[in-house]
Design a protein that fits this description.
It is a single chain. About 10% of the residues are buried. Helix 2 packs across helix 3. The protein is of the alpha+beta class. The chain has four helices and three strands, in the order αβααββα. It comes from Arthrobacter horti.
């Protein structure tokens, strides 16, 4: 995997929040609380693998009536 391919896989907080259908503020709070998807920091900027956001969303799935 090249650096360019790796960088394309990472997205910023705004795009990650959009995928999760949450506001940036709610998404950021989840990161602070340790309840959000895995991320890395590049300088002060949190970056998320698109697949990590999807995996995290799937982990929240509950059966109906639960």
């Amino acid at each position: 995997m090249t650096i360019e391919e790796l960088e394309r896989d990472f997205i910023g907080e705004a795009e990650a929040a959009e995928i999760a259908h949450e506001t940036e503020r709610t998404f950021r709070q989840r990161r602070y609380d340790g309840n959000g998807p895995a991320y890395i920091k590049k300088g002060k900027t949190p970056l998320y693998r698109r697949s990590a956001v999807v995996e995290w969303l799937l982990s929240l799935e509950r059966p109906s009536g639960a």
